[in-house]
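Write out the bound-state structure for 2'-deoxycytidine-5'-monophosphate.
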Amino acid sequence: MNFTVAIDGPAAAGKGTISKAVATHFGLAHLDTGLLYRAVGRRTLEGIDPVLASKSLTAKELAQGDLRTAEIAQAASKVAVIPEVRAALVDFQRSFARRDGGAVLDGRDIGTVICPDADVKLFVTASPEVRAERRYLELVGNGADVTRAQVLADVRERDARDMQRSEAPLKPADGAILLDTSDLSIDEALSRAILVVKRELDLKS
Ligand code: DC
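---
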């Protein structure tokens, strides 16, 4: 069975948590596409050309555990504006989406560019302040030395770059269901996402 769930949204809106939990709940494979851009971003910090890095990305680079730093997030957002980098990553994402048994992909352009025909398209969002607070708590919990103001500035800068780029800008796809998690607990947000996915799965089976 082919069944694709596309989950897009800005940084720290909760899409990663929701995507992972939806995939586990329904037994679907999950791809966090941000990791592809982070792995390329990381290589550029080491001095490698981003286009070259995107064309030669390996599974080992994706599996590196330390891709979730603020520095790599900014580098990822910067390489993500380069059309050749995006193009190099398309095939891998599309074949993952078509895998037998179904898949959940989360990112910025899954419903708009990678899988416009996805069975379910969700756009998960929250206010910049709420997202910055969540990211701040996560970073501090991991021992990072940051301030709330820095994290909010970071979130706003990344939002602006991700939304204003000419290639595959972050925006809700046609037909996407909006899920604003600003005033929702994780459990509430997750139940809503599961309900939407279940409805489509039931229709298909
Ligand atoms: O989801 P994330 O925070 O790990 O993503 C890091 C950056 O990668 C994000 O700021 C923009 C880019 N990205 C993208 O352009 N398209 C995607 N599908 C996923 C991420």
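---
Residues 4-198 form a domain with the Rossmann fold fold (CATH 3.40.50.300).
The mean pLDDT is 95.
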